[in-house]
Amino acid sequence: MTHSSLLHHASAAAGRLLPDPAGPGRILRAVDRIERFSAADRLLESVRRAVRAVPLGRARDGLHGRWLGHPVHPLMVQLPLGSWLSAAVLDAVPGQRRAARTLIATGLLAAGPAAVAGWVDWAELHRQQMRVGVVHAAANVTAVALYAGSLTARLRGREALGRALGLAGLGVVGVGGALGGHLAYRQASGANHAEHVPHLVSPGWHPVAALAELPEGRPVRREIDGVAVAVVREDASTVHVLAERCSHLAGPLSEGTVTDGCLRCPWHGSVFRLSDGWNVEGPATAPQPAFDTRVVDGRVEARLRTS
Ligand code: FES
Questions:
Q1: Please, which residues have CB within 8 angstroms of residue 303's CB and are 6 or more apart in sequence?
Q2: 245 CB less than 6 Å from ligand 1?
Q3: Closest residue (by CA) to atom 2 of ligand 1?
Q4: CA–CA separation, 138 vs 172, rounded Å?
Q5: Average pLDDT in the 264-275 region?
Q6: Distances (CA, A) of 185 to 132, 145, 176, 180, 285
Q7: Which burial class, exposed, middle or buried, applies to 14 when counting CB atoms under 10 A from its CB (0-12, 13-18, 19+)?
C-alpha cells in the first residue's frame, strides 16, 4: 500500500468516528443514543432515591463541592487516573514492577471516594444526564475491576497478565472519562447555570415592578435586560431580587418557596439566601447573582451587585 493510500484510509477511518461539517460523527451519535435511551429510567429513579436516602447530612454538600465553588468529583478522579496512567508508563520501564503495583493500589483506594462524590452529584441531574452518567459509572466500575485483577495477577507473579489487564483498565477508564467530559461540557452538568447573568445585565438601575403588585413572601418572575429574575417582597418595604435560573441546573426560582429569608429551588432543593444569593444549601455549588434594590415613587428598581 502506498503512503498516500495509507493516508487516505486513515483519514476515512477518522472521518467515520469524528464529526464532519455534514453532521455528528459516530461517537457523538452513540452518546446521543445513550441520552435518549429511556428503557431503564424506572431503575435509574430507584437508584436515585437510594442515593438520596443515604444519611450523609452536611457531608453531602461537601461531596457536591459547595465549599469549593464547583463540583469536587472531577478533582477527585485525578488521583486514580494519574496513578493508573503513571503505572502504565512504569510498566514500560525495566525494574519498576513494585512502583507500578503501588500506583495501581493507590488508584484503587482513591477510586472509592471519587465514586461516592460522583454518585451524589448524579442523583441531582436531569434524566438525560443520568442516563449518560450511569454508563460513565459502569465504565469506571469495569476499569476498577480490571485494575483489581491487574494488581492480583501482579501479586501472584503473573506480570504479563497484570500488565495486559492494566492496559485494558486504562482503555476503559478513558471511555469513562470521555463520557464524563460529555456530561460536563455538552450536557453542562456541574456548570454554573447563572454565570451568564453579569455578562447580559447592563450596569445601573433597572425598573422591575410596582411595589404594590408584589405579593409578600412569594417569588414573582420579572425580566431585566431580557434576563429572568426572581423578585421577592419580604415585607412592606423590603424587596429582594435574584437571578431567576438556578445556578445548579437552571431550575425556575420564581416557582420556589421562601422560608427564613431564603429561596428554595423547586427542582433539587438548593437554598439561596435572599439578601445576597449565597447558596446556603446544595446541590448548587455556585451562589445566585443578587441585585441591590430600591423603591422610587412606589416602583421597585434593581441593580446587579458586583461585589
Ligand atoms: S436546578 Fe437543581 S437545585 Fe435548582
A1: 203, 204, 205, 206, 291, 292, 293
A2: no
A3: 268
A4: 10
A5: 97
A6: 13, 27, 14, 9, 16
A7: exposed
Q: What is the mean pLDDT of residues 10-31?
A: 68
**In this structure, which amino acid lies at residue 240?**
H
Whether the Cβ atoms of residue 233 and residue 210 lie closer than 8 Å to each other: no
Chain CA centroid to CA 38, Å: 21
User: Which residue among 129, 192, 193, 248 is best mutated to probe the pocket of ligand 1, counting the most ligand atoms within 8 A of its Cβ?
Assistant: 248
Residue 1 has pLDDT above 70, yes or no: no
Residues in contact with 94: Cβ distance below 8 Å, sequence separation at least 6, in sequence order: none
**Ligand 1 pocket test, candidate residues 60, 244, 267, 272, most atoms within 8 A of CB:** 267
Among the atoms of ligand 1, which is closest to the Cα of residue 250?
A: 1
The answer, yes or no, to whether any atom of ligand 1 lies below 6 A from the CB of 288, is: no
pLDDT, position 237: 82
Ligand 1 centroid–CA 271 distance in Å is: 9
Instruction: Name the pTM for this structure.
Output: 0.87
Nearest atom, ligand 1, residue 270 CA: 3
CA 8-14-18 angle, 5° bins: 145
Q: Is the pLDDT of residue 20 over 70?
A: no
- For the chain, give every domain's residue range: 37-186, 197-304
Which fold, 197-304?
Answer: Rieske Iron-sulfur Protein (2.102.10)
Q: What is the DSSP letter of 257?
A: E
Does any ligand 1 atom lie closer than 6 A to the CB of residue 190?
Answer: no
* Burial degree of 79 (CB within 10 A; 0-12, 13-18, 19+): middle
What pLDDT, in 10s, does the model give residues 232-242? 999 888 999 99
122 lines ligand 1 (CB under 6 A): no
